Amino acid sequence: MVQQLTERSALSFAYAETFDCVQCGYCLPACPTYVTMKKETQSPRGRINLVKMAAEGKITYDELEGPINLCLGCRACEVVCPSGVQYGKILESAKEVLYEEKSKRAKLFQEFVFGSLSNKTALKTAGAGLSLYQKSGLQKAAQKTGAVKILPERLRSFEKILPQRKRNKWEHFYPAQKPVYRVGFFVGCVMDAMFHSINTKSIKLLQAAGCDVAVIPEQTCCGALQSHAGAKDIAKKLAKENIAAFEKYDFDFIVNSIGGCGAMLVEYGRLLEDDPDWKERAQAFADKNVDISVLLSELELPFTREVNKTVTYQPSCHMTNVQRCINEPLTLLQSVPGITYVELPMKNMCCGSAGIYNLVNYEASMEILDEKMHHVQAAARKPEIIVTTNPGCHLQMKLGVEREGLSDQIEVVHIVELVAEACGIEG
Amino acid sequence: MNSTELWLEALMQIIPDETRIFTDRADLYSYSYDASFGTYLPEAVVQPKATEEVSNIMKLANQYEIPVYPRGQGTSLSGGPLPVKGGIVLDFSQWNDKLEIYPEDMMAIVAPGVLTADINNAALKEGLIYPPDPSSSNVSTIAGNLAENSGGPRGLKYGVTKDYVLGLEVVTPEGEVIRTGGRTVKNVTGYDLTKLIVGSEGTLGIITEAILKLHPKPEATATLMALFADLVAAGQAISNILRAGIIPAKLEMMDKACIEAVEAYEPQGLPTDVEALILIELDGHPQAIHDEILKVEDVCRETGATEVIRAKTEEEAAQLWRARKLVSPAIVRHKPTKISEDATVPRSKIPHMFQRLKEIRKKYDIDLVVFGHAGDGNLHPNIIADKRDKEEMRRVEQAVGEIFEAAVELGGTLSGEHGIGTLKAPFMEMELGAAGVEMMKRIKQSWDPKNILNPGKIFPEPGQRLVLTDD
Question: What is the ipTM of this complex?
């Protein structure tokens, strides 16, 4: 599989963007996989160079695939880059090219996962998103495709930490007593299936803080996992469905409690930048999207009780590096009466969850998680609660706590759960 | 088996851990570059973690005559670690297990792959600092800094890397392990091989451990920004500050083009109708610098500063320095390739150098901005271009050559802190003369008779000229 530098390959890869990298290396210390895998090949600078080499036909797609698949996509490198390199764009272009080149066998497995996510009916009948992680459907598919032989072991480690499922149907409208904002609530697929109660609490908190909240039934999956895997066409289709669904309503904001999905939603403008019919609509949609902490930190909350606990915060990479939503969750957290906030050392390093990375690259992910747990242990005070803002991080941190044998000492919660508790709001 | 297969097998015997030897093409391509220009594929990459391993590799390399290139984290701006003749890249970035601070001796002993900033951070815990602060110090390794004799903004007051090295452990090109210097400030036993190795760009020996001198941490800092409508006045102000008996810890300068680029990128409220801006940081005893910063302000005003801003809080100081930090991202907004030069002139010649740079910018019609450590004459003329534009790059190459000529004519040097490497080798004779280069070559030959340690650096190949494109 040696490719020549055809116009096509240079165009499919974000080849021009690779020239923005001056190879200064400032990204190296910020990259979790460079830190744990200890070689330049697994660094942002290394990967950008390999994309360039692949586009020029100097290395094969097979040679490019390993380093690209082992990238978390956390995009911490973009924040520290002094030259403004668009790493996310380069990475996704490589994923897209590789996705198209991939063998049928591997593709079947991915299509099962992403097909489930983008098809709400399938998601529900399959027993909702949990089934992705549980033996039934996924394991069968994995066996059928022969794609992932070690998957059962990985699934066992996640099983212990999965939350109890309990879902109710959404009402469509949750009015506030004295409305300040009219917001549309984005439920997400994995979040809605696995952390239904966090969505419920999110809506109740928004209501209590003065928002009319609508949960419109036309919304669909954000497309993040598909986009990160290179299935850009599916991602674009989902984006258009969401844009068309939400623009029918006159919302002040579109709100979600999911760092990862939120990052995808704010990038719809970029996703559809080459589509003249959608470009502006996509940007208008993106501009309305905010993480729940943005509104809750601005509005007044009816706190009723103190949470006398030592709390630390593991930011979601996509919330920090893509949404650039950094101070709002901290402000919200520190407004909770009674808590003692302790900063997590190296808090901006990814936990290794990264979408489905921890399933696909289990060992690599666990090495990053172990590094993360060393930082938890090194905090100035031992935290009793680790706060997260994204379901992927939530599960991963829970797994980390479990692996360290600290489950009876450290609780992992979503920021919404902590704030809801302090406001006396039940799920 | 061919020769490469033979030595690769022998290499596996030396390094017991196979995860520290790379021969896959994706890996080889990942060590084919640094932060300068050109890509060269090695045949193997090894991550040594012990002096004995390095010694055995050099003995093997001598036996098979394989070129060997020591590499830190590849932040070199002159091509120091590029494997220009194939062979083995030694990646020292993972050998970082020793970082010992001895507060009573004001000294640190470090492994080669320790990050420069980590040494300073460890020293700070004992009320000390490691002063050399190249802007890449969060990424660069100490052995890389030692090999290149790196500088940084604090060079004006505190000197550069070579001023903080007491002793080294070095593996010679033939695989012998020697120690130079020691743990004392005074040491005149024999030739000063420490100073010879520091700045030798990995061509005379491989540094496997360093004993570094530390300095007491200054108690406080004070920051000031001054704007000038005239470059000569700015240069004069710098001279006058130093003649007033004040040596700032940092003294940085930005020209009009830099200020405009920063204002277009992320507005800081800087006036764009000035020719130059200087940023000064004093450090020392709080009362002393309180008096001195007022004096600096007076000197700037007397020398024609149109505006002087003195930071009253740490936040205000950080805000002033932000303008300088934004220069790098701001100047690469329109074209991606940045050629960062470090030609250095005597301090009194700064205004002349600015004039020459202005002429060169016009003559070759290039985007050239100037910023840098003006206090020690170490300007950084940066040319912004696009390396895919071959015609533009030819003009840039000519302009760079002329910048070097200007610096040498003004009594300065080709390189203040980045090193010669591959990039500046063609200009060596211009500064040193034929005999000067020949004496250096003789030193190289006596240390490395087979020319296997970092070949292709410092000394030009016959007919070699400056090349700033990758192919």
Answer: 0.94
